TrEMBL record:
Residues 30-260 form the AB hydrolase-1 domain. Gene3D superfamilies: alpha/beta hydrolase. The keyword Glycoprotein does not apply. It holds the Pfam family Abhydrolase_6. This is Alpha/beta hydrolase. It comes from Azospirillum griseum. InterPro entries: AB_hydrolase_1 (IPR000073), AB_hydrolase_fold (IPR029058), Carboxylesterase_BioH (IPR050228). It comes from the Bacteria. The lineage of its organism: Bacteria, Pseudomonadati, Pseudomonadota, Alphaproteobacteria, Rhodospirillales. Keywords: Hydrolase. GO terms for molecular function: hydrolase activity.
């Protein structure tokens, strides 16, 4: 199946559609990955969404995966890029599903462009997502140890003990392979953007659309407490806590993640 071809700010954008042609006239879900990652982190959710009532764009953000351009250095710039993507795709309004850095992007877009955002799903998110200076420095230098730290801390016990729900998929090695493919320095740009984003609380209070906050009970990067605090600032929020999940709930607990999305997005059961 041919993937849709979009240009945003003069650069090509790769978007996976979950195995169905993209149709902007249907309800649209845009999936936004976290720092140093790409659309493949959503592999166990995109197909379900696409076959149960949503048109799907699981995008590679600028400078990531197969998308062109340089990585953008602020959450606000990434949020504006998402709105430009909607323009390029002919989408009037979309649900944004974001993980970690992608969740901050979804939050900021919903706060400032309510006319374009139907609803938001925030996974592994907090009002502030500070990054240790040593990790910032290692990531900026392209040191592979930064990738290992992100993947190690990003997974809960299931990821470290071979508890993948998908047969043959080893979560930690898979995460390392994913991040090994990024251009050196991109992770540093992403982490610096997360570290600098200081307006999460204000943004959350400005969001007027329905919001779902998905919390990994074992998340060591955005704690359950921080997730609940974020949800408390949102006017129309729901919380789903996944007991066995760390920060990477999409791969650690894919079925529970789909179930959370299904209830919130009112996906068809077919």
């Amino acid at each position: 199946m041919t993937q849709p071809s979009f240009l945003v700010h003069g650069h090509p954008v790769y978007a996976h559609t979950g195995g169905r042609p993209f149709d902007p006239s249907r309800p649209v879900a845009v999936l936004l990955h976290g720092a140093g990652m790409d659309h493949t982190v959503w592999s166990l959710q995109t197909r379900y969404l696409a076959h149960h009532g949503r048109s799907v764009l699981a995008v590679d953000l600028p400078g990531h995966g197969r998308s062109g351009g340089a990585p953008l250095d602020s959450i606000a710039a990434l949020a504006d890029w998402v709105v430009a993507l909607l323009d390029a795709a002919g989408v009037a309004k979309a649900a944004l599903i974001g993980h970690s850095m992608g969740a901050l992007v979804a939050l900021d877009a919903a706060a400032r462009r309510a006319d374009r955002i139907e609803s938001i799903v925030l996974m592994g998110a907090a009002e502030r997502m500070p990054v240790h200076p040593d990790l910032l420095a290692s990531a900026a230098a392209g040191d592979p140890s930064a990738n290992d730290l992100v993947i190690g801390w990003g997974h809960g016990p299931r990821g470290h003990t071979g508890g993948s729900a998908a047969p043959g998929l080893a979560l930690i090695p898979g995460g390392r392979r994913l991040m090994a493919g990024i251009t050196p320095g991109v992770l540093g740009v992403d982490l610096a953007a997360c570290n600098a984003y200081a307006t999460g609380a204000t943004a959350a209070e400005a969001v007027g659309c329905p919001a779902l906050v998905v919390i990994g009970a074992l998340d060591r990067m955005a704690s359950a407490k921080a997730g609940r605090a974020l949800a408390s600032r949102l006017k129309m929020s729901q919380i789903v806590t996944i007991k066995q999940a760390g920060h990477m709930m999409m791969t650690e607990t894919p079925d529970a993640t789909v179930e959370a999305l299904r209830g919130f997005l009112d996906l068809r059961r077919v």
